[in-house]
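Long-time lurker, finally posting.

We've been working with CRISPR system Cms endoribonuclease Csm3 (Thermodesulfovibrio yellowstonii) and I want a structural starting point before designing mutants. I don't trust myself to interpret raw outputs, so I'm hoping someone here can both generate the structure tokens and explain anything notable. Sequence follows.
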Amino acid sequence: MNRNLIGKIQMKGKIKCLTGLHIGAAKENIEIGAIDASVVRDPVTREPYIPGSSLKGKLRALLEKSLSIKLGIIGTENRINIGTKTNPVYIHVCTDADKAYKCPICRIFGSTGQGGGKNYPSRLIVRDAYLTTESVEELSQIDTGLQFTEWKFENAIDRVTSAANPRQLERVPRGAEFEFEFIYNVEDKETVLEDLESITLAIELLKLDSLGGHGSRGYGKIQINFEDIKCFSLEYLKSGQGEVKSITDLSKKEELLSVFK
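Top reply, 14 upvotes:
Generated this for you. Predicted structure of CRISPR system Cms endoribonuclease Csm3:
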């Protein structure tokens, strides 16, 4: 199917950690007394960050759960395993581009299809979210023996033998803030409002859920605040001529469409 681009919507804001945040990184080596699970960091600055893939994946998962009954995707059809055979992770995927266009999940987050050019690239781009300047300065002052982060000591107890299994996890402390950016590609005026409503729903669900690992044990509660939402027409992006609409609240998303009239 042919896809057009008539504009872009840029959404910026901040994510604030209301509890400690753990988004894990691959363990490089094993040392006695070392952290059992470290957080993902920028390789240059060593600052912890929120990968766009983690944030986007969580938003998609929550939206899938909220719409699964409506879409009839609870069964095994129209889903693929992005995990392994022993640890499967299933996501909903429409089998071709025409179905993906009609699907509120695949239209926003994309679909791999079933090969043969039937994929449907995502309309939504989610950037990596990095610490604000203020948070970098604040976290650099804490004395935990770690850089920008804290230790969290936990102890798992075997329910049968009562044997203890102590472990040490690294997490970003409560109060840290990250700057995020979403880019939504506007391809038609007919579906943009529905897509923005779905994105809003996913964000509201995330506020009442958790980001990263160990959410059931208190990690990953976050607050998401939009600070600047701009809609650019293709005409403006090409020549600098035309209207740019700016809002600060997605509840006023209808105002963005004035750019395309």
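Before you design anything, note these points.
The chain is about 25% helix and 25% strand.
Residues 97 and 209 are 31 Å apart (CA to CA).
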